[in-house]
């Protein structure tokens, strides 16, 4: 697979995954390090793209702001359940009341398992095992059982370091499509960078809409048409893009 081209700034709408794309993974979600120069590079790019840059992430928006500060970028958080564009803010967190008791029951089951961490994001729950890899099979099995107790449409996103419960409609493709139907994104070419299973549906949408899909990491089976090997390669590519104006 080829590296992505450096697209024309005035024609580009840029969508950025966070973990594994903009920042290196860490044992705990709070332990990731945002390189000090990165928020500035993103802010600069956002100005040069007339505001057509958005985070598209599984993290919630509060966490995005804690990590990056106030960059002024648009953002889809919690797999698109939260969407922020200028003064417009949409959030589907009211659905959380029905599912939180089911999540807390699951958490109790692993309360004695060191390194297993539960991240509550409204109607979405992430169960992390990156710091306890030996617990992964038991966690996945318990999550699959729990799925049957959640409302119809919920799905389990299984990864190699945990799993996330997502309600219907929480997808990165829906988030990208939402931005692309609005100014300043509308009419531009979508460029989406991601590294994970949850990004594949975004790559597929981007390809279908004549965009540029970029997977970060070693070459594996993916829908993306382009690749960048490492997070550092992403930073270099973003810097080149910002300077191309
Ligand atoms: O869509 P993303 O921006 O890639 O966010 C996906 C999830 O990222 C975070 O979890 C992942 O990164 C952690 C830090 O490296 C790691 O410890 C964990 O194993 C990964 O799953 C975040 O905590 C989740 O809320 C996001 O959904």
TrEMBL record:
Primary role: Removes the phosphate from trehalose 6-phosphate to produce free trehalose.
Species in which this protein is naturally found: Roseinatronobacter alkalisoli
Family annotation (InterPro entries): HAD-like_sf, HAD_sf, OTSB-like, Trehalose_PPase
Keyword Cell membrane: no
Documented EC number(s): 3.1.3.12
Pathway participation: Glycan biosynthesis; trehalose biosynthesis
Reaction catalyzed: alpha,alpha-trehalose 6-phosphate + H2O = alpha,alpha-trehalose + phosphate
Protein name as it appears in the record: Trehalose 6-phosphate phosphatase
Molecular functions (GO terms): trehalose-phosphatase activity
Keywords carried by this UniProt record: Hydrolase, Magnesium, Metal-binding
Family to which the UniProt record says this protein belongs: Belongs to the trehalose phosphatase family.
Cofactor annotation: Mg(2+)
Database matches in Gene3D superfamilies: HAD superfamily/HAD-like (3.40.50.1000), Trehalose-6-phosphate phosphatase related protein, domain 2 (3.30.70.1020)
Record-linked NCBIfam families: T6PP
């Amino acid at each position: 697979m080829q590296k992505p081209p450096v697209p024309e700034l005035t024609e580009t709408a840029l969508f950025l995954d966070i973990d594994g794309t903009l920042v290196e993974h860490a044992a705990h979600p709070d332990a990731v390090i945002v390189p000090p120069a990165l928020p500035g590079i993103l802010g600069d790019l956002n100005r040069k793209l007339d505001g057509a840059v958005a985070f598209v992430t599984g993290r919630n928006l509060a966490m995005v702001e804690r990590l990056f500060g106030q960059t002024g970028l648009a953002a889809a958080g919690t797999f698109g359940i939260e969407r922020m564009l200028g003064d417009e803010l949409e959030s589907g967190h009211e659905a959380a009341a029905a599912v939180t008791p089911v999540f807390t029951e699951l958490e109790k089951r692993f309360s004695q398992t060191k390194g297993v961490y539960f991240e509550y994001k409204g109607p979405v729950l992430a169960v992390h095992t990156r710091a306890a890899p030996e617990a992964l099979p038991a966690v996945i099995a318990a999550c699959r059982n729990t799925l049957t107790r959640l409302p119809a449409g919920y799905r389990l996103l299984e990864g190699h370091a945990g799993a996330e419960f997502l309600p219907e409609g929480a997808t990165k493709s829906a988030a990208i499509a939402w931005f692309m139907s609005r100014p300043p994104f509308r009419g531009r070419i979508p460029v989406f960078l991601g590294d994970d299973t949850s990004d594949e549906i975004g790559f597929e949408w981007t390809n279908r809409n004549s965009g540029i899909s970029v997977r970060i990491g070693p070459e594996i089976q993916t829908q993306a048409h382009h690749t960048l090997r490492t997070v550092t390669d992403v930073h270099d590519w973003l810097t080149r893009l910002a300077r191309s104006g």
